[in-house]
User: What shape does this take?
Amino acid sequence: MNRQHTLIALGMTVALVCLAGCEKPRPVSVQRGFRGTGMEVLYNRPKLDALYAKNQLPEVQSPASPDGPRAGDVYQNVQVLKDLSAGELARVMLAITQWVAPPDQSCNYCHQGDMASDALYTKVVARRMLQMTRDINTNWKSHVANTGVTCYTCHHGQQVPAQAWFIDPGPPPVHGIVADRGGKNVPAAIVGLSSLPFDPLSPFLLEANDIREQGTTAAAGSNRHSIKQAEWTYGLMVYMSNSLGVNCTYCHNTRAFGDWASSPPTRVTAWYGIRMSRALNNTYMLPLTHTLPADQRGPTGDVGKVGCGTCHRGAYKPLFGQSMLADYPELAGPRVPPSPEMAPAPVDARAATGEVAGMKSVHDSSPATMVAGKPL
Ligand code: HEC
Ligand code: HEC
Ligand code: HEC
Ligand code: HEC
Assistant: This one.
């Protein structure tokens, strides 16, 4: 062998070793649909265990009596939690300090001197967050069920949730033939380092663009959806899959991505999740843009926004389905006006979950069976 051959052989050996090391140990597969349809979700057991360990619930404050005068009467400037007892208000304050404030700042993170003052932006934002949390738990049961959320679901002890999303302006413009990237063709982490659009969220989780790329009839030319629309749809789908730590078959029978009747019920939950994220961003997050100081905003000056990953953080259900609401009834609501009426999911979608009477689903509607920590 001459030197060149040796180099090639060496290169190939290195490549083989690298490839063999891709996924170790072998992933565990969980069947999610009919046998033979390939509807399996793959898990890497050690990674799943590590994620599960990071998703344990924080210490719970001892309960407060709901009796006695209302916080709205006792205090000067309680606008959201006014229905709570004074003891319950104090308990929520302790909890949000633990969930959101930096350890060295404690109550001072939102209060300085006069507790009733709204001088700190953090307090103003926190008040909207209290409203948002109650809104989610009251009006979005179609998505969060009775599991619900607390500040901890998104914040995990940090001031800014690790997976809040900001609009990505993309790389600086270049000159020449690739000057117009068309919002894509950059290996962006949010779309799994593919060349799909690097901001796949704004069109769907802020604006209400159609998430479609398939035609509904076989007739040639009947599909009016553009390639661009397909790319944006796939970008969102990659983000959703990564946010939940699942692959496409968690929500689709890949024989027909668009067909509701052969999709698992999780797809309907996801449908509501898209509408919920969009509503939260428009109702709560965007109006906070100028409340936040400039250094807390994104590269285009936008506010951090809510997406699937903000709550899910890589788990098929946030905190692997553990609910904190039983321990924090103060945050369950229902003390805000209901969100504007939303059209229900498509009828055939709801039929798939048995939500529409008389149209029975062919699917087992039991939730995922692969809770980490239990044998798969
Ligand atoms: C993450 C921000 C945040 C932290 C941390 C926080 N608070 Fe608050 N606090 C608020 C908000 C927001 C309100 C107003 C709630 C409302 O309008 O319903 C409030 C209201 C209060 C009030 C009522 C004041 C009045 O007269 O109107 C008291 C008392 C209070 N907090 C005490 C505390 C204590 C004690 C701590 C620390 C254990 C604490 N807070 C930590 C955000 C915070
Ligand atoms: C967590 C559930 C979920 C996962 C995971 C998921 N999808 Fe989707 N997908 C949906 C929902 C919900 C819709 C419909 C959205 C709507 O109508 O608002 C959809 C729509 C689509 C469509 C459009 C179908 C049409 O009617 O034109 C395609 C294509 C698609 N998904 C592909 C994928 C691919 C590829 C993956 C994996 C990379 C994936 N999806 C992962 C839930 C999911
Ligand atoms: C659904 C997810 C979610 C929930 C639930 C949630 N937050 Fe937030 N929170 C966010 C996002 C997203 C931001 C924006 C981050 C940014 O742009 O700085 C934020 C920002 C904040 C900030 C400002 C941080 C900064 O300095 O930028 C405070 C304070 C805060 N939240 C408190 C709370 C409190 C208290 C609760 C519970 C009552 C709560 N949040 C519940 C998602 C959430
Ligand atoms: C405000 C927090 C929050 C956001 C944002 C959110 N989810 Fe969820 N999601 C939850 C909670 C809580 C549950 C658990 C509900 C339950 O126990 O049945 C859940 C459950 C689900 C499930 C059902 C899982 C199963 O196995 O039954 C799917 C699928 C899902 N979410 C997809 C999404 C997608 C896709 C998005 C983004 C478009 C999203 N979620 C955004 C909180 C959230």
Q: What stands out?
A: Residues 335-339, 356-376 have pLDDT under 50 and may be disordered. The pocket of heme C (ligand 4) is lined by residues 136, 143-145, 147, 149, 153, 240, 244, 266, 269-270, 273-274, 277, 306-308, 310-312, 316-318, 321, 367-368 (CB under 6 Å).
